Amino acid sequence: MQKIMMNITCINSISDCLQMCKQFKSSSFPTSTKSGDNELSFFYRGESSLNYITQPSLFRTSKYNQEDKLIHELILEKPEEFPNYNTNMFSTLAKMQHFGMPTRLLDISKNPLVALWFACKKSIINKQQDGKFIFIAGYPNLPNSNYAKILSLFAFNAFKSSLNANDLYILRDQLIQCGVTLAYKNGEIDIKNMEQDYNYYINSDPIILPDYNTERIKTQQGAFIMFGNNSEDTNCSTKSIHSIKDIDPYGLEFFYSITSIPQSKKSYILSELNEIGINESYLFPELEHTIAQLRIKHQI
After folding, report:
1. Where is 113: in which H helix or E strand?
2. Torsional sign, CA 244, 247, 253, 254
3. By C-alpha distance, which of 112, 92, 128, 151 is closest to 19?
4. How many CB atoms lie within 10 A of CB 64?
5. Average pLDDT, whole number, for the chain?
6. DSSP class of residue 176?
7. What pLDDT is stored for residue 176 in this prediction?
């Protein structure tokens, strides 16, 4: 999908942010407001630097082509944390993301004020830079959707640029184990259709709604963009790196718009957010973050 143009300059206050959200929602989107059973929904993301490349943490490392090795090594180290990883791969990736593991998931929120806090939060590295606020519109999928299951399976396995007959039957068994809905022909799974569907799903960047099974994700009203293997190079032989850019990107599954937040306004906006209870201890309910907020409050 594509970038949505809006008559906006920058965000200087909570009021500006909410007004721009209203404008974005009233934009003329190029397609209908439905995709299958999914309603068009709105999400937001904030980043402390306007120059920050908006992409999942995995793609910001030099180990992105070792994704499957990182995943399986963590499972081997802590098997008790991931008892059902074979049948619930997306939740496994979401849990890994929650605790700081680089994954192909990009955090977004249903709440614009949560995104606004992240765009304005203090950063030692980016404290002198303007922030970035991203408006996103798309059709979210559930964690048990084919999108989530197939892209998670892709993450768990070493990438192959082409699949031979034996690979396809192994893939069939893996998809069945993951609970993916497959098409049948003459009473058997249609392998050709399966391969086409698999390639379609791994080359998509869907919005996925997670299970709200932690206080943090409930509070932050979180969701994810799950980046696939999109690449303008159809002969790409690696898991490709791409991002949300301030130009029309290749193949993203959502509409978006980007605006800035002046560095000089960040402290003011954070104080506004704090007045309505949006601060570190609220967004991160774990004890260490509550203590951090108290230290800021008392300047210790």
Report:
1. helix 112-120
2. positive
3. 112
4. 19
5. 84
6. H
7. 92
Contacts of 83 (CB under 8 A, 6+ apart): none
Asked whether residue 78 carries a pLDDT value surpassing 50, the answer given is yes
d(CA 39, CA 89): 25
pTM: predicted TM-score of the whole model, two decimal places: 0.86
Q: In whole angstroms, what is the distance from residue 68 CA to residue 76 CA?
A: 12
Q: Is the pLDDT of residue 172 over 50?
A: yes
- Note the Cα 43 to chain centre separation in Å: 10
- Length of the chain in residues, anyone? 300
By percentage, how much of the chain surpasses pLDDT 90? 48
Q: Which tokens in the block code for residue 298?
A: 């008392």
CB 183 within 8 A of CB 198: no
Distance (Å) of CA 184 to CA 48, 167, 194: 48, 19, 9
Residue appearing with tokens 């074979």: 86
Give me the half-sphere count of Cα atoms (radius 13 Å) on the Cβ side of residue 238: 10
Q: Is 102 exposed, middle or buried (0-12, 13-18, 19+ CB in 10 A)?
A: middle
Mean pLDDT across 25-45: 77
Is the model's pLDDT at 212 over the cut of 80?
Answer: no
| Least trusted range by pLDDT, from 109-123, 210-224, 243-257 | 243-257
CA 59/CA 99 separation, integer angstroms: 17
**Is 135:24 a contact under the CB 8 Å cutoff?**
yes
Spatial contact of 156 and 75, defined as CB atoms under 8 Å apart: no
Report residue 158 as tokens. 């070493």
Cβ count within 10 A of residue 24: 22
Q: How far is CA 85 from CA 7, 198, 216, 269, in A?
A: 45, 20, 21, 41
> How is residue 240 annotated by DSSP?
-
